[in-house]
Recover the amino acids of this structure.
């Protein structure tokens, strides 16, 4: 139907008011039965939006999750919560449960992991972590916490752009202007972050503009930049009408070129893991270590084969428990079952909450994750409902945050607490998620 095509296009309009107005119209069509979906038990807690790097606005992400049949959606932008409010509003109108958080990088100085390759392909000693289950009442504190981090990131981005421009000087590639070519395609003016992918997106556009597509571009990447391109990506780059062309090119640049311009972040941008965890505790978010595991083949094509935590996983779990992490997050489609069985066993041993999510940040990725319906992963669905209950209850009364020291259930074993919170999460009305007082078991 033409009206739906028009509305979905509006979901990525520059103005948030236009996007939410489109959501209102879609919600009306759903209520009238003119738009339907095949509902699943699937959940996803790790979707990126235009407020870090993604083809999707928060409204569009909420709609695509609904359309894919998901029960829940979670936003997880890098160093930003600017899209959280929109995702909550859009999800509420669509009737899909939601959870919000953000992802950040931290340094592991003065820990047993100092100097190791942890879960970050670009740097040793620096790791990605996730702060899940953020109560809406904490948004202002988080925005202030993230401001100096993004300020430092901007400064490093500018230096990397200068390095990139210098590299391409002899190839006649038009210089990248940090303000016109990068800031302009971001949501930095609304509190969004600018990531390395923004830089590579700008570079990808400059390369296509100068060299063109297809064989000429492939020859340049292989001959001049010495990039080894997988056959699947070559096929994509040979498709001149490929609607995802720039994203496909960006992916290969991320995996095989980024190291040429990369500048190590300092401790102002990647703060101490201890500082980050203490902040997470202070706002009663759930800090989660993001397990990557040794990569043999990257599902998204933006990571090369590389070893990460698997050789010292037992030591890692002992250390993150000591530091104060509450959870471990992982992605069932990304690892082998043997890898994840080991992670699950360690989570049980160290009493970590397990949180799943499929990292969505480019258009070829599906919002569906059928792997989570397998028996060995179905408990991750329960954990998502527990996460949602934690978030909504904490917003109602901070004492009801899952790990709050004054939580009336704090003496219950974590497993029992999670089971109870999961049952509450499933009973929260997604059209009125703030109304939880009648569900309190205390």
């Amino acid at each position: 139907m033409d009206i739906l095509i028009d509305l979905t296009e509006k979901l990525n309009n520059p103005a948030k008011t236009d996007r939410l107005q489109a959501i209102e119209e879609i919600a009306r069509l759903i209520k009238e039965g003119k738009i339907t979906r095949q509902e699943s038990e699937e959940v996803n807690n790790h979707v990126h939006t235009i407020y870090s790097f993604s083809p999707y606005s928060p409204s569009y992400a909420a709609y695509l999750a609904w359309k894919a049949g998901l029960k829940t959606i979670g936003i997880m932008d890098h160093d930003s919560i600017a899209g959280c409010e929109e995702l909550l509003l859009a999800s509420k109108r669509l009737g899909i449960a939601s959870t919000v958080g953000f992802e950040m990088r931290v340094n592991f100085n003065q820990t047993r992991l100092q100097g190791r390759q942890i879960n970050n392909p670009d740097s040793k000693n620096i790791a990605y972590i996730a702060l899940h289950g953020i109560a809406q009442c904490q948004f202002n504190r988080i925005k202030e916490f993230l401001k100096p981090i993004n300020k430092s990131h901007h400064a490093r981005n500018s230096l990397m752009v200068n390095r990139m421009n210098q590299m391409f000087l002899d190839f006649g590639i038009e210089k990248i202007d940090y303000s016109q070519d990068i800031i302009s395609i971001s949501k930095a003016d609304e509190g969004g972050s600018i990531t390395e992918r923004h830089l590579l997106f700008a570079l990808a556009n400059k390369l296509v503009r100068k060299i063109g597509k297809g064989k000429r571009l492939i020859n340049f990447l292989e001959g001049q930049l010495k990039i080894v391109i997988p056959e699947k990506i070559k096929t994509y780059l040979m498709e001149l009408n490929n609607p995802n062309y720039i994203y496909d090119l960006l992916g290969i640049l991320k995996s095989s070129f980024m190291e040429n311009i990369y500048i190590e972040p300092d401790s102002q941008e990647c703060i101490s893991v201890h500082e980050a965890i203490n902040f997470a505790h202070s706002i009663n978010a759930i800090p989660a270590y993001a397990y990557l595991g040794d990569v043999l083949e990257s599902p998204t094509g933006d990571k090369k084969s590389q070893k990460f935590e698997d050789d010292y996983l037992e030591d890692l779990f002992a250390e993150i428990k000591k530091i104060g992490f509450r959870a471990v997050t992982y992605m069932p489609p990304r690892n082998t079952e043997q890898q994840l069985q080991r992670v699950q066993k360690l989570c049980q041993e160290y009493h970590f909450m397990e949180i799943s999510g499929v990292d969505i940040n480019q258009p070829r990725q599906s919002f569906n994750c059928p792997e989570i319906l397998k028996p060995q992963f179905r408990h991750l669905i329960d954990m998502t409902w527990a996460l949602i209950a934690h978030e909504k209850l904490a917003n109602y009364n901070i004492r009801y945050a899952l790990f709050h020291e004054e939580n009336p259930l704090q003496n219950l074993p974590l497993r029992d607490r999670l089971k109870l919170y999961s049952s509450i999460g499933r009973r929260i009305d997604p059209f009125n998620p703030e109304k939880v007082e009648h569900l309190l078991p205390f």
Observations:
- The chain has three domains: 1-36, 37-147+269-388, 150-260.
- The chain has a mean pLDDT of 95.
